[in-house]
Design brief:
This protein is an alpha/beta fold and 444 residues long. The chain folds into three domains: 246 residues, Aminopeptidase (3-Layer(aba) Sandwich), CATH 3.40.630.10; 95 residues, Glucose Oxidase, domain 1; 74 residues. 29% of the residues lie in helices and 21% in strands. It contains 13 helices and 18 strands. The strands form five sheets. Strands 1-10-12-11-13-16-14-15 form an eight-stranded mixed sheet, with helices on both faces. Strands 5-4-9-6 form a four-stranded antiparallel sheet. A hairpin with a 4-residue loop joins strand 4 and strand 5.
Amino acid sequence: MDAAPSLKSIVRELYPLHRTLVSDGTDEALEIIGGYLPDSANYSQETYTPGEKVWTWIVPDRYVVHEAYFETERGQRIVDFEHNPLHLVSYSLATDCTLKWDDLQAHLYYSEKRPTAIPWEFKYYERGWGFCLSKRQFEELSKDEKYHVVIRSEFKKDPDKGLRIGVAMVHPEGGHCKDSGEILLCSHVCHPYQANDDIAGVVTMLEVAKRFTENPLPPGSMSIRFLFCPETIGSICYLSHHEDLIPNFRGAIFCEMTGNQNIIALQHSRQDNHLIDRIARYVLKRRNAQFREGAFREIIGNDEMVINGPGVNIPCISLSRWPYDEYHTSDDNPDIIVEDMLQESADIIEEIIRIFASNSYPCRVFRGPIFLSGYGLWVDWRVNPALNAALEKIMLKLEGTDSIFAISESLNLDYWEVYKYIREFFQKNLITLSPRPITAKKGK
């Protein structure tokens, strides 16, 4: 049997595609993504019509570039879209004109910080045109020349060629549990010729999906919904067409820029101290991971403003390795991607989900203190002094108002140890387990 491809090799496969908000390259990327997901991930695609209003936004047109370049009047080609799509400002209007230097330079972009790199610029929601080149190349251009600019681009409104997103669904063992709800994972497929932003996030999510199909969550856990979409407008399209799903989401993770050599950045949800924030911090500390953290929208801004924003407000954390020097330039290429960083990111996200999605609220069906020894629930203080010291405190918290994670957190105990112990109460019919808080009747 062939070995599974490395995550970095998938980055290399997706990287060169011309992926914009709506483009043939994005469609091809979504097909490739589906090919790496197992059948049990229930992968599908949805298409949204250009010009359609989605909440306060408009679905953009498909962008097609036939050719784009500028050259001297003598025919010396300066930059060419065919050589690197970053040379053309994304969503540039078609034009064919000859300009003096003073008129051309207003349409040229370069990076001060990365003088040998081509920057990535876009005009997704405005109309104009431009070219990108290295600062060194810009400085070498003659100010006395005239330049011939050619951009042959189209904006197509064909409904069958609208904005596309990919959706995968992974259920717990035994299938979907309606009462438990879902956790949403989101990552970007747009950004042409950018590897870390955000193909790294995409392949990290592919790995997470694969792990949960091979080792499903226990029965009664949340389902996991994966969203592969263009930035901002993709999640707006999806949620605006599926408003009925919004109340079912218990939390969300936005995942991006996970492949570079940097520590993890945990950005909190808008709620700031929601269960998913606390679990993420717990997992990072438990793994002794180097990380930094910041408030909602204070590290970097992406689809969490949709998911956790006005009228939706699903608690959404963000995990990335921001910042990095190569951002939005041609230096953001597969060479800066590190397999171990991708895998570590998947490890962290997997454990956050395993805790968040399996966490439940235990509620007693017994009266009085439990005869622990009689039920095989007593813990020897010589074997596990910390858990032994917490036995009565755990027993007093089985009222349906504290989740297993909250109990372990309040007692400063390992979640998985407490989870396993409380599951023994369930197996002996001493408690019920609910995906949401419940309150035992007074006196019972």
